[in-house]
UniProtKB/TrEMBL annotation:
Pfam families: Rotamase_3. PANTHER family: PEPTIDYL-PROLYL CIS-TRANS ISOMERASE HP_0175-RELATED (PTHR47245:SF2), PEPTIDYLPROLYL ISOMERASE (PTHR47245). Its EC number is 5.2.1.8. It comes from uncultured alpha proteobacterium EB000_37G09. Residues 1-21 form the signal peptide. Keywords: Isomerase, Rotamase, Signal. Residues 142-232 form the PpiC domain. This is Parvulin-like PPIase. InterPro entries: PPIase_dom_sf (IPR046357), PPIase_PpiC (IPR000297), PrsA_foldase (IPR050245), Trigger_fact/SurA_dom_sf (IPR027304). Belongs to the PpiC/parvulin rotamase family. It is an enzyme of class 5 (isomerase). It catalyses: [protein]-peptidylproline (omega=180) = [protein]-peptidylproline (omega=0).
Amino acid sequence: MSFIRSFCCAALLVSSPIIFATTSSAQENKPENKITVADVNGEAIYLEEVMRLAEKLPTEYRQRPLESYFGGLVDDVIDSRLAAVAGAESGLSENPGVSRLMEVAAMRVLAEAWIAEQVNKAITEDALTATYKLYIADNGSREEVKARHILVPEEATARAIIEKLTGGADFAEIAKTDSTGPSGPNGGDLGYFARGAMVPTFEAAAFELEPGSFTPEPVQTQFGWHIIKVEDKRVATPPSFEEMVPQLRQNLLNQTLGRILEKLRASAQINKRSFENIRTEAQAAQAQ
């Protein structure tokens, strides 16, 4: 049995992750508007069923051309249809355990469909445009600094260097001779970088400086002690709306999903047992 087939068979036994595929309109969901990929005993198998299965494959498979594994997916759907019919005919669907699993699977499908519908209602062209306008208006998130630094292992050494710099010594030349960092031979030049590119302590110190100034106190990170000099500041040109659409859509999806789930939880009574409590009960049950 191929890996794809083994994986897909296993996927039938567990609940799938929530899939945020674009939901079809009522018109598109009519059978006459669906694409048939096969039929089993006169019952059609539609493309959307195969593609939902494809979305559950590991990333390494989904990165391959679809045609390289599409046939295997269709065969998996055919096999599951045949096995499901055989199971129903055997009366297995009346088994309490199986019946419960079927209920859980049905609830999961309903939840996925409802959440996808709510999310897609929120991710409109107007919403994407508004989010983009907020992004380009926030200059702080796109601010960059051009800096140099000198890295040394001891605080005392860093303070001695600051004294030299205060006395007029050339920052780049000291970096070349004294810095232990990889940028030392280049005079400590780090080029331009944005927020999030450096460790937090280093970043905070660098963005507080005005162009032409250096840190009056050594800055400690896990790498050692730094003296940082900022040479320039700028606000990076924002990407075009078209370039940012995938990121904007993902951000809106995450925000909308968070709001939906938070609202649902706020109106529900939820009691969660601790993991330790559950494990203790499970271990006791196994020991019996």
